[in-house]
Amino acid sequence: MNRFDRSFDRLLVALAALAGAIFAAIALLIPVNVVLRNAFDTSIYGLLDAIEYGLLAATFLAAPWVLAKNAHVTVDLLVSSLRPGARRIADMAVNLMGAAVSAVFLWYALEALGLSYSRGSMIRTAFIIPEWWTLTVAPLSMALIFVEFLRKLARPASGQRAATGL
Question: How far is CA 133 from CA 56, 123, 139, 144, in A?
């Protein structure tokens, strides 16, 4: 494994850990907010909006790591019945399509981010923040997913099956 791959993997793990921390904070703060509301007739101001932004961010931050670990949802009923050579071709085709689709999503995510930034759009909920802040995580994620699909194309198929419970 070369230096780029090691650094890229460390970045994916760091972003996944950040996503995990966000999910953990959400899991801890929701019951705290319920207790505050029911026992003390108060709540954490803006928590629901923060949870929405946290779910958005955590999902996008974790997605490249999930792809790298092959821990995403797959339907391999057809592919698993193919011979090894045909399976490799199918794997390459899927990775090519994934790279193409993530590149298209990256393009549109960057376009939305740039448009929001240039317009100065603001989100006015419990927080008043620039809209582009919430849009930064999508292009980052799509760029990393694109790179991961390219890495999968460059590596020979290891025959590694997806991390499933079955």
Answer: 12, 10, 12, 18
